[in-house]
Amino acid sequence: MGRGNRRVMTMQVTVELFGIPRARAGVAVTTAVGRCLGDVLADLASRFPELGESCIEGRALRPGYTANVGGERFVTSSDTLLNDGDTVLLLSLDAGG
Amino acid sequence: MHAYHGCYLRVDLTTGSSERIPLEESLLRSYLGGSGLGVAILLRERAAEVEPLSAEASLAFVFSPLVGSPLTTSAKFAVVSKSPLTQRINDSLSSSGFALSGKKTGHDAIVLTGRATEPSVLIIDESGVRLEPAGALWGLPNREAQSRLRERLGADYQVASIGPAGERLVRYATISHDGRHAGRGGSGAVLGSKNIKAIAVRGSHRCSWGDPAALIDFARKLSEKSFGPATAKYRELGTASNLLVFNRLNVLPTRNFQQGSFAGANAVSPEQLGVSREKTRASCAACTIGCEHLYGLRDGQGNVRLEYENLFALGPLCGIDDGEIVLRACQKCDELGLDTISAGGTIAFAMECAERGFLDEPWLRFGDGAALLRALDMIVSGDGIGRMLAEGSRRMAHEIGRETINFAPQVKGLEIPGYDPRGLQTMALGFAVGSRGADHNRSGAYEVDFSQAVDRFNVGPEAAVLAIETEDKAALLDSLILCKFLRGVFTDFFVDSAEMLQLVTGWNVTASELRATAQRIVTDKKRFNILAGWTPAEDTLPERMLNTPLPEDARAMLSSARLSGLVQAYNVARGWTAEGWLPELDD
User: Fold this and answer.
1) Residue A94 with chain B: CB contacts under 8 Å
2) Which of A20, A55, A73 faces B237 most closely, judged by CB atoms?
3) Could you give the CA distance from residue B324 to residue B327 in angstroms, rounded to a whole number?
4) Does the structural domain B7-201 have CATH classification 3.60.9.10?
5) Which residues of chain B have pLDDT under 70?
6) B238-415 is classed in which CATH architecture?
């Protein structure tokens, strides 16, 4: 499924969860649908209410959480476009220790 | 003056005498407390030019204006000296009752010089300052030594001690208090070189506060925020939960930084360690976060505090995928008084040397848990290879030769914490320029890499100011002193810090003043290092981490030219010369 179909197709992405997002969702990996990060977050929030309540506000990540696409680029904007088959990581922002 | 006693206690251990040295309000306002005040005192004591394990060396236990206040996480103290591991400034922080009772002795810092004539304990209480023979305490592990000394003196004393590693002058020995450690850089060896097993403090001198009612209100609101989502990760999971994230991002240092991911990561993850083990939580005094997660050993021989840095250094870095071994190694380091990062880093380096034939130690192999535990014991006993291991990876590499220094995992002699700099290149800059060496506590530059601000595989000079921002925040946090795990709860850290400081001291301090204070503290650490012999060539990374990518990801490659450019950009943004000299010292 190519980028040219982005406007009309529903994208499915793999979501890997770490730290608090994993604890709230109760799963380490799931799938979600959406054209952009905001869509994916809204989908996750609807299926994992605890995750939604703790980590997601509407279609955006709450402060303290971040997302990463494919282990490469960190993103937080809800408008970040995704490709079908992308992997999105959800994680707590702080490191340290 | 509110929040301070306006003096420090200077103890000459050679003569057993002590004196109170005044601290002017202007100096306190310029350096606050903790790391900042410690550096200022050490510069005054001319500690930079002195061999750190000599009798002439100074070792400062430094409190802060916030200690004793109702502000959450403020029960902290800094231990500041010249490091026997790096020969540069070393400021390591620890927490809890020792800070509260130490400040109540009526001093803003306790500075030790000289050397006791025999193994001793130093007692500071209402009746004065005295040395007593350590007797049977010498040789005991930390917990037992502290427990026995409190049995002897009374439970209302708070005790900081060294373990056998400090007694044997291991260059990365810690100072321990109540299970926590002033861990990095070898302050335990400095205390050991002074023949001091432990310091016991008790006091009744309380400081007044600038605006007590408003302070209580501010503290209540801060505590409420500290229960919120910004600290949930630390409270619920602990820092060890970083392990799987770092593994996924290929920045988990593995087998002496030969890889950025570890096949056995799941087996040693806290998620797995928590299965079928007792798990409990604890916190420092005056803390509402409670980040400490303790895991029970399977044989019932105690619960072990586990942090990410312990886990990475004694697990993946040494190729260990057995959680029980990692926990036992952590426990051993706690009791012996060893910095886990330097212990793990030095052993991992030795494992690679042995596997490559540079050391004739066929038993020392990556992934061998028994070898890891044996090596930890040897560091303290000094038997066999233990003598070299006790010196840290840089000295060990110089002794072995054969260009092994290229893969000794250190900067300025301090072993690198659990962030592979090739895939976190703003952090690479933070490591390279760090005043005490490779350091995740004095530079939070990894936060920049974990954001949209930079491409972590290809960081440009614009990252320098972002790295500086994290370093300045850390300098202020370490001088106020507040726990770094609180940093996410502030709306504007410098503004909120100014308000806090105003409430405790009564000073009309502003955010911009505190920004200048943070910069001053960082600059004075550099000043100390220059006096101690720093040269620009030190601000780099090991050859292994330059010009060769991580095997998992070709993009995780940092050229020496790019790192040099980053260091120059950092120096210029600091207002120093491009090489890193302070302008007033540059001839």
Assistant:
1) 233-234, 447, 485, 487-488
2) A20
3) 5
4) yes
5) 585-587
6) Orthogonal Bundle (1.10)
